[in-house]
Amino acid sequence: MPYFPVGHGTLLYVLYEVLSGTPVSGIQLPQAQAQRLIEWLQPYKELPYKVLATLSDGEKSIIAAMNSSWPDAPHQRCQAHFLSNLSESVLPLDTKLRQQLKADLDGLPKVPENSERPQDPSPEQQQDTTPLFPQFPICHETQS
Predict the structure, then answer these.
(1) What percent of the chain has pLDDT over 70?
(2) Is-above-0.85 flag for pTM?
(3) What is d(CA 72, CA 66) in angstroms, rounded to the nearest whole number?
């Protein structure tokens, strides 16, 4: 399965066999070029191994190259890239919400350090251990 990480500057493309984690081949290109990637992948599509799926960061030229090389293999977008891209649009909203919540909560009175709340529950506050269904008692295994 090909995996193509995208970087800044020269791009490194790596073809992995993911079940074993073995890198098969790599190539550096100044930019994503579908035709150049197709040429690079050509010898590997001739191998007697079935490509079960492909994985990439979502770059259109990479997907085009993989679809050209292995048209029957389903493609999946890398989850790390997908979530990273998703977080880019959510982060500003989350930051704004967090700031608004902090501003709203700053107006509340502070909880005293030494509250009058008991540390241990009183006997009447302890949890009831009576079975809900007495006809089906809770069995505890014993060691002999």
Answers:
(1) 73
(2) no
(3) 10
Query: Which position has the higher pLDDT, 32 or 128?
Result: 32
- For the CA atoms of 122, 127, 133, 136, the dihedral, rounded to the nearest 10 degrees, stands at -110
Both tokens assigned to 82 = 């997908």
Look at residues 27, 22, 24, 25 and name the one whose alpha carbon lies nearest to residue 11: 27
Per the model's pLDDT, the better-predicted residue between 74 and 135 turns out to be 74
- The answer to whether 57 touches 78, Cβ cutoff 8 Å, is yes
| Residue pLDDT, tens place only, 28-39 | 988 888 999 999
Instruction: Tell me the C-alpha to C-alpha distance, in Å, between residue 140 and each of 116, 132, 137, 143.
Output: 38, 16, 9, 10
Alpha helical stretches, state H, the chain? 34-45, 60-69, 79-106
